[in-house]
Amino acid sequence: MLIKYKTIDYYQCFQDMFERLLENERLIYEFLLNFDGVQIKEVQEVGQKMYLKNQEAYLALLKDLDNDFIPPMDREDIHDLAHRILGLHQAIQAISSQVYMYRVKDMPRASTSLARESHQIIQDLVGTFKKFQDFGRNDYLKERIGKIYSQLDPWEDRYIHFIHQQFSFREDLDPRKVFGWVEFARAYKKAIDKAKDLVFIMERILLKYH
Fold first, then answer.
1. CB atoms near residue 118 (< 10 Å)
2. Residue 190: CB partners within 8 Å, gap ≥ 6?
3. Looking at residue 71, what is its pLDDT?
4. Is the pLDDT of residue 3 over 50?
5. Are 11 and 4 in contact (CB under 8 A)?
6. Is the whole model's pTM more than 0.85, yes or no?
7. What is the DSSP letter of 117?
8. Distance, CA of 47 to CA of 53 (rounded, Å)
9. Cβ neighbours of residue 96 under 8 Å, at least 6 residues apart?
10. What is the pLDDT of residue 209?
11. Closest listed residue to residue 75, CA positions, set 5, 133, 145
12. Is the pLDDT of residue 1 over 50?
């Protein structure tokens, strides 16, 4: 088994953190597909509870790591992986917070495309980690990580295109609405940047231990 030891099951801890992160992202994704500005407060509050649980799990993991005489991986790798998972979750939760803060009442059609692509990236990322205990599938794991990188690379261009679309001149342009849309997109970009950081750590661990 990859990361299971005496005081804490590290792998299970990471799995639980990933599951809460994924559930939070799914709530936001489904909310955006069936956009209803009234429901965003509930989505934001439920997501915040999930994030706080992951924050508690992160702190508990660090405490156990300090007391673990011989952890199953380098302490730096365990810490970095947990830290990046929490960072991605925080960035995902910020998406609903931005929509709520700017009182966004509707979303442009292009926002659905951004959300769909991001949703697929997060799903693939979590699914790849679930395979990390399988030592015999090193090439398969490398292929999965390569696929995630290939999804991440064009996302920046789509984000820039989305921003340009929102600032294209229209007589009926509502600045408050546009700023809300732009901040929504920026929040998604921050989440994608955090996903890149997490994939990098996963790749480092794969190359070191598999």
1. 26
2. 91, 94
3. 75
4. no
5. yes
6. yes
7. H
8. 10
9. 27, 28, 31, 40, 43, 44, 47
10. 74
11. 5
12. no
